Structures are given as structure tokens and as C-alpha cells.
Sequence to fold (104 residues):
Amino acid sequence: MLIGLVGLGGASCAKSEEEVQEEFDVIVAKSNACDDVSQCVYATIGCPLGCWVAVNSAKRAYVEEEARALIEDFERGGRSCQYECAMQGPLECAEGRCQEGDSP
Fold:
């Protein structure tokens, strides 16, 4: 009986997909400022947050580290997911933010 309660306790501490996505969106918003496309790179993330996200090159390691921590929080409840990612489009700096541009 104790094992079942420990399992339930662990699951209740895990964050939902919506919670980790909301937290990650805030991290990205603080990490994708740019003046020129040369400042933009893709950070590799993972399910359930996506395959990659355009960020300022100075923030890439931070974003990837935070994504890993959020994914661990999500998986703590025994959940997991997996993506097959398509190719990345070109990067652009639009309105002061790094983002994926339209493919040619």
C-alpha cells in the first residue's frame, strides 16, 4: 500500500504539459531578442516543448538547460512523448525577435 502512495505522490508533483509549456514560453520570450539575424540560432529542445526554438545565440545554452529541466518535471509523473522533427526553416530577426522564417 505504501508503494502505491509514493507513486501517487510523485505523479502529483509532476507538471502538466500546459504548465511546462507556459513556463517555457516565458523563458523563450526573455531569450529571443535580436537586432540582426546573425544573433539568432536554434536551441534544441524536446517533447512536449517542440523540436527547436529560435533564440538569441547568447541564450541558447540557458534555454536548452531550462527546457531539459521542464521536460524532466513533465516526465516525473511517468509520462513521455516523442517527435519526428521536420527540417528547420531559415532564421530571421523580425520586430526585434528571433524566429523561424518562411521556407523558400
